[in-house]
C-alpha cells in the first residue's frame, strides 16, 4: 500500500504511509485560512479605518516651526552648527573654517574640539588643513582669479612643474582634505584644464597673480567660448595682492567679438 502511495506522490519519504499522510491532512484542514480579527475595536479594523481616511497634508517649514517652536529655540544646535537652519531646510550648509572663527590676533588653531563644538574627526582634519595652509602661506583666491601652481613631478629634469591658469571652479568643501580647484589655460592653441588638490603634499607653491572674481560660481561656459577668453600668459608677473578681489567687467568690444565668433561657428555648421 505504501509503495503504491509513494508512486503516486513521488515527493514523500519512503517511510510515510497513506494513513500518516491523511492524518497530517486532517490537521492542516482544521487550521483557519485567515487569522485576521476584523471585529469592531480590533487592530485590523482600526488600520482599515485609517487607511480609508488617508488624510495627507503638506507641511511647509514655516508651518512646522509654528507648530513646534522648540525646534528654533535650541541654542546648542546653532552653537555647533551656525548654519543649521539651512540644513533643516534641505539646503547645502556653508562650510565652517575653524581657523577663521578663532581670534585673528592669536593666529592659533583651537586647542580642543570642544572649544569649537565639533567632533574629533572634523577637528583633526581641519587642523591638518590649517597647518598645510600656514606652511605654504596660501593667499585667498576666488573663481575668476589667475593662479600659478608649482607642484612636484619626478618625471621632469627639474623635479617640478609650474602651471598658470584661470581658476574655473572650486569645490564646495574647501575646509576638508578633499578640497580641489580647477585651472584653465590655452597653450599653443590647445585648451588645458588641470584639477589640483589644495592640500596635496605635491604642491610646493601657490601664487595668486591676479585676485579677481566673476558673477558666476563656476566658469564652465568658457569651454564653449573663444580660446582668447581663457588664454593666460605663462610669463605674467603678479599684480599687487588685495584682500578684496576686483570684479571682472566685460567690455562691449569683447562682447561683440564673442558674438561674431559664435556667428562664424553657426555658419560653418550650416555649410556642413
From TrEMBL:
The UniProt record lists the keyword Cytoplasm: no
Question: Keyword annotations for this protein?
Answer: Ribonucleoprotein, Ribosomal protein
> What biological processes does GO assign it?
translation
What GO cellular-component annotations does this UniProt entry give? Answer: mitochondrial large ribosomal subunit
**One Gene Ontology MF term:** structural constituent of ribosome
Classification via Pfam families = Ribosomal_L19
Keyword set includes Cytoplasm: no
Q: Which InterPro entries match?
A: Ribosomal_bL19, Ribosomal_bL19_sf, Translation_prot_SH3-like_sf
Concerning its family, UniProt says: Belongs to the bacterial ribosomal protein bL19 family.
Q: What is the recorded name of this protein? A: Large ribosomal subunit protein bL19m
UniProt source species:
Actinia tenebrosa
Encoding gene (name): LOC116286302
Amino acid at each position: 500500500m505504501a509503495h503504491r502511495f509513494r508512486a503516486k506522490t513521488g515527493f514523500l519519504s519512503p517511510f510515510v504511509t497513506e494513513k500518516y499522510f491523511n492524518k497530517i491532512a486532517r490537521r492542516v484542514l482544521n487550521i483557519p485560512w485567515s487569522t485576521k480579527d476584523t471585529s469592531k475595536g480590533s487592530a485590523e479594523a482600526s488600520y482599515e479605518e485609517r487607511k480609508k481616511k488617508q488624510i495627507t497634508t503638506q507641511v511647509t517649514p514655516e508651518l512646522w516651526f509654528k507648530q513646534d517652536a522648540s525646534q528654533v529655540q535650541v541654542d546648542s544646535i546653532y552653537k555647533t552648527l551656525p548654519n543649521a537652519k539651512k540644513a533643516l531646510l534641505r539646503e547645502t550648509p556653508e562650510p565652517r573654517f575653524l581657523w577663521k572663527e578663532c581670534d585673528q590676533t592669536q593666529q592659533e588653531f583651537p586647542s580642543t574640539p570642544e572649544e569649537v563644538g565639533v567632533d574629533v574627526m572634523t577637528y583633526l582634519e581641519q587642523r591638518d588643513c590649517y597647518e598645510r595652509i600656514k606652511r605654504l602661506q596660501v593667499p585667498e583666491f576666488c573663481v575668476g582669479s589667475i593662479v600659478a601652481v608649482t607642484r612636484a613631478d619626478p618625471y621632469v629634469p627639474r623635479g617640478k612643474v609650474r602651471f598658470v591658469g584661470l581658476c574655473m571652479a572650486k569645490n564646495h568643501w574647501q575646509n576638508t582634505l578633499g578640497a580641489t580647484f580647477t585651472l584653465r589655460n590655452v597653450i599653443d592653441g590647445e585648451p588645458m584644464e588641470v584639477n589640483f588638490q589644495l592640500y596635496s603634499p605635491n604642491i610646493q607653491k601657490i601664487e595668486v597673480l591676479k585676485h579677481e572674481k566673476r558673477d558666476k560660481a563656476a566658469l564652465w561656459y568658457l569651454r564653449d567660448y573663444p580660446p582668447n577668453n581663457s588664454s593666460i600668459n605663462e610669463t605674467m608677473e603678479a599684480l599687487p595682492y588685495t584682500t578684496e578681489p576686483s570684479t571682472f567687467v566685460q567690455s562691449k568690444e569683447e562682447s561683440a567679438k564673442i558674438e561674431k565668433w559664435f556667428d562664424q561657428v553657426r555658419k560653418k555648421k550650416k555649410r556642413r
